[in-house]
Every structure is written in structure tokens, then in C-alpha cells.
Amino acid sequence: MSNDCPKERGRHGKKSKSDMVNLTGNIEQKDDMTLNRRAFLKTAAGASMALGLATVPFSLRAMVGLAEDDTEHVEIVQLDQLPRGESVTFNYPTENDPSILVHTNDGELVAYNSACTHLMCPVFYEKESETLLCPCHKGYFDLKSGHPIAGPPQRELPLIEVEVINGTVYATGRQYRHG
């Protein structure tokens, strides 16, 4: 039995003059067996399978159509009470989100959040020019698309999706568009 200090021996207990071999002298072979690449890969694969299996109930629920309908129908107005060329304000999706519904001269219904995308001033419908106006800084939005056409606003108004059911106009969703 040798009386040499383990640090003075190489990895396999042999003396070596190579510095690279002697640098591994502090590695315990027991740790090599438990903390190796194979063990790491097994752990990673096991964790991935566990996460994948955890999502199976949600995937099955979505596949069979049991996902919750997250569209909330909020009544805005009776269509016969909103003649062409007129608008009405409402709040959607929360009471803190002012919105505007316009019945255009062409008979279309368009709705947007009515907070200007520049500095959040209220946006109004201008019947004569068929545009949406932010009077704070003279920002104009296209009525058909909600895109800015003049003034400081750079982003379009969020679109409120509407649906007419039995003569009543409902807000059913909101879209943020970019482009």
C-alpha cells in the first residue's frame, strides 16, 4: 500500500507527470457514477415526459370541444334604436374600457375602443366625414379599419367584434391588430 497523498496521484491512482491527468485527482469516482451525462439525460427525459403527461387532460379537453367559451356577449343597443350615421358609446370588455359603436351610412356596424392610442383621450364619431376624431391633438382614424389617417396617433384602435342576435347588437370580443 502506498503512503502517497491522493492529491499527488492521478485519477486512477497512478502517478503522472502530466498536469491534465493530475487535475482530475480531486474527482471522486462515486460522484462520477451518480452525476454523469447519462444520469442527467435520464432525469431530463423523465421531467419532459412528466410535463408532457401533465398537459394531456387540457389537450383532450380542447380536442373534444369542451374548452370554455371565453367570448362574453355584452349587449350594446337595439339595432332599430341606432339609425345609420349615428353612434353610441358603451364599455367593453370592462366598465373601464370606453368603446364606440358606429352604424355607418353604408349600414355596417363597426366598433372600437374609443380611447385614442396616442394619449388615451376619447374618440368621437364625425358623421360628416365618416371618421373617428380625437379632439385632443386632432388625431383622425379611418372608420372602416380604425387605422390612424392623420395626427399624432401611430397605432390603430382595438377592434370590438360585434354580432347582431334577434335585433340586438352585442360585443363579443376584442382584437388588437398591428400592421
Q: Can you walk through the features of this model?
A:
It is a single chain. It contains four helices and ten strands; from the N terminus they run ααααββββββββββ. It is elongated, with a radius of gyration of 33 Å. The chain is α+β, with helices and mostly antiparallel strands. The strands form two sheets. Strands 1-10-9-4-3-2 form a six-stranded antiparallel β-sheet, with no helix packed on it. A four-stranded antiparallel β-sheet has the order 5-6-7-8, with no helix packed on it.
Which tags fit this structure?
6-stranded antiparallel β-sheet, 4-stranded antiparallel β-sheet, disordered N terminus, 179 residues
Beta-strand content bin: 25-35%
Q: Which class best fits the helix and strand makeup?
A: alpha+beta
Count of DSSP strands: 10
On the 0-100 scale, what is the average pLDDT?
84
- Cα radius of gyration in angstroms: 33 Å
The DSSP helix count reads: 4
Outline: elongated
Strand order of the largest sheet: 1-10-9-4-3-2
Can you give me a brief rundown of this structure?
The protein is α+β, with helices and mostly antiparallel strands and 179 residues long.
Lay out the secondary structure.
Layout: H1 19-23, H2 29-34, H3 37-54, H4 56-63, E1 74-78, E2 86-91, E3 98-103, E4 109-113, E5 124-126, E6 131-134, E7 139-142, E8 148-150, E9 159-165, E10 168-175
Antiparallel strand pairs: 1-10, 2-3, 3-4, 4-9, 5-6, 6-7, 7-8, 9-10
